[in-house]
């Protein structure tokens, strides 16, 4: 609830006084603080924090009274009683010093123009922005017979405990109330109020050293000098002294201090062991029962009792929602009502930067909370034993004089502590004295355009805060902020201080205050404030009218009482809340009132209509009205009559009250409900409530929602309870499978407790997440640490930790599933889990469930009769994330627990094989490979890694393939049959083949659940030159190559062959780019007559278009119209119809367009073609281009019907021709048509880069068939020419040239029949086709003349000829395919 923030304030104390500060105590309104030292009494003001007056004893009075020890304020702050060491009680009167000018004020805050008169409130006390002048006047003194141990103010009297065991009652005028005086030895003490076996205290039990009184408990809590603790019930009347009775706290003998929580009726005792024990009173017998203990776990700080010492101080916050605890040797902690640790400065970052051995803060001797709990005043001992602190940080004068320090810690608190309305339960909303803290997700969610599921998931992981400064115009006169509220959307905020209220809109970034300041000062918000739709609902006290009221103010109107709707109530409102269109309030007379609210869209401003529905008296169920800590209406019910379908109505079925931590549920009595007839007035009569039933105890906060979600009924209908040290509890509804066949013994709901690691402040029902806040400490290097301090405060904070706020979150679904499975409610657990499968962290929920049960059972020393792990495994098997959950859990668990895990889930080999069967689980299978590596010998790991590598290659998971190749290369052949190591080691990213055996697949690539998209082709330099320059080195390495490397190379080569044989050249490109060490060019050279041999050119062209998303070319209307005319002519007439067309289409400029001239940087290292490579091209390319004007539009040689290459452009080369032939209008039409055609015929830019890269690679490797196909797809005339020239000038095999010519013939036929868009391009490369035909014919002739008829076998260029003789066209040395096959057979022999 409370969290420290920032640095503490060190208050400057008088250097004149040499005595240390002993005690600090605040007045009832906490505006004045009395600081007690040995000889001085000082009064400090709260806001601003300044000293007002100091009263010092003279030597005479010091010798008479002795030193001051402690003090108590009179309830009306008009007097102070101080106890001294010489058994005196000195009374001082506190008055306004009228002798001080400036309207009896020491300080007046001036803003802008100086006010004429300081403003007073209704009680006559100055505003918080003015510091009154106060004087202390000695009134009287009382002398007691023995020394005084402690004192306590009880109503109009002071209770004084003396060392002789007496409890003396003194009045504030100095008179002693003899009738009310008690002696501890006269009081019977028992373990309960039944007074069985009551005994009297003896002298060894000692006297009372610490006392607290609680009006809600009706008695005193005492700590005796012997360490025993008592709860003393005084007599009912002052005359009946014999009726006093005391109850002993059992098993407590080392108590040193006590603090009482009035709201929750708790008694906290601090012990010598450094622990705190909190007791509650059993209402049945009146015995003191242990509620919980305040123990710092060894995880937080070990050995607290010996290091920190005993408990020195305990103090509850003003609202009773947190407890401050300090230790004798230093340190501070903050606990929630029922024992949840909020802050602990022992260990961690809460240390002194200069000396970490000292506890932070220094030993505290006295504590006091400030107004509304925003400040905690501490009296600390100075570090006299640590010279590093005093000499560096303090002036020399203060080192000798000051022996104590006055520190003020600053806090922010949850709005739920004082205003538990429905809006504050749905957001992490904290309030400080001048700022508000709200998580940014609460403010951004309304404007986020994302889907609801994604939006909430972003909210969960957000760690930032939205800090909203409160308007200074409001806080200047109305400090402190008492109540704050946020609407359900998280966009509108309202705050209420000493008087009036103000509200703020995040979307406008403006505060709205009362325009009439008198209206603001005439109302005091007393019972809370909340939002209902666009109205602010608050409970206030009307000062001029002396009346308690409920008011509704519209948000969009001016803040004025004119627009407010006022509803008067008979008594003070303590709590209020809303449920849909119902307002519920709890009053000081223990009555609950329900109001119906209706919004009216009247003009010009909307209004509300409020009518009273029901009033219920709860005085019989509530011990005191102040004990009610929470109130809400819900749609929950514990009856077994309602079905799941009926819960969608979301009506107010019950009322929940948190009475001192005990949750009471009042349900509607529908037994007497009947269907009203027309005109029957019974339909207006509200339903009564049953007597309450206790739902839970130790309850701090309640979360219920009025939202409806038919898909998550169980979560939406659940009731969440925050129970402090007991964790959280969820009251979950149980719906049977068959509504009509439900068992009578089945409960409608079940209470499931579980522990949480954070302090919950909000529950997201649909997202199954708890949100909270935590405090942490950091250090800041500032100028004070490097330079001498210019002032006291600067030197102090230079080495202190700076407290910051952090937002925390935790998933709770696995806790609920585990509790349901433990209770054999697997069906309900399955039903609950299936409605949450769409959550992105649902796989993590299953991992947490499995991991928690595995750790608990596998590490248990005692045998488990009914293990939960088999049920959890069977439950997880119902979801597709089973395999992933098991392996992730195993990898996050110690290896020693693996046998227990896999004995239940199954053999990891079987799970690995199942991952391979189910598509898309390769990453999970890789994780299982690491498990097998540590459980099996390397031989088994290699076998499974090979299977996974082949599957990864098929799925194109290149990164996983690289990791698996490194994994296989790292296996030492000498360790193949060795036993497993039994440990998991992660492999580095190095590609060294001689790595250790324990290397594994890279964890980053394996742990991902979603595979990365395909990587783009890497433009790497061709490996032809690299290979040629390192041939001797490679030859040496190949002789030393291991069988493992040959085995891996065979797998990679086999997959590459498969890709190329199935025309998957784009995948082959990705494969070569991502597989390190795979030389694509050299491999293609070896495979150019086997896997790279292309038989079906038409299918290859189609496959390339499909793989690269490259569109088939289309024809324009004019070209199509002209082709229809040309098809009517003969082939010869078509060829000679137009000299202009032939010459232009055959020109080098036209063939080599702007796109064809694109050369990548990766091709810079390739060998350029010889200079005479263009001599074999068509002769028409070297002739001059002839231009002649067009005579008519119908002439056959019209440029509009010209068949052009996609790579050419009519905008440049033909500008002159078009200007002559066509008019301006026709020219624009032709230009637009050409540009449109180019854009339609061209694929993505990345595909073009990849195609041209592969074209260069295939040309380098001599795979001319594939190079020709790619050039045709690109419609690159230059690329076709290079391919044909390479076939004519290099050592090209005969069958390859024949297949190229035959393939072109099939492509021409395909173009004529199916893809007419290629017609212009094939017409432009007809000369290259003729050249290729001539090369084929010439080669056949040379071959027939060079081979003897007797030795000349017959070679047929058929598809079935799988291994023809590879022969050089120029008659070079012959090399057969059998030689290559023999090399591979030798490699296989080596492996075998």
Automatic annotation (TrEMBL):
RIC1 C-terminal alpha solenoid region domain span: 814-975
The keyword Membrane is assigned to this record: yes
GO biological process, one term: retrograde transport, endosome to Golgi
Amino acid composition bias (Polar residues), ranges on this chain: 1342-1351
Sequence segments annotated as region (Disordered): 1014-1038, 1342-1367
Cellular compartment(s): Membrane
UniProt-listed InterPro entries: Ric1, RIC1_C, WD40_repeat_dom_sf
Pfam families registered for this protein in UniProt: Beta-prop_RIC1_2nd (PF25440), RIC1 (PF07064)
Key words, A-Z: Membrane
Any one cellular-component term (Gene Ontology): Golgi membrane
PANTHER family (alphabetical): GUANINE NUCLEOTIDE EXCHANGE FACTOR SUBUNIT RIC1, RAB6A-GEF COMPLEX PARTNER PROTEIN 1
Protein name: Protein RIC1 homolog
Organism (species): Lottia gigantea (Giant owl limpet)
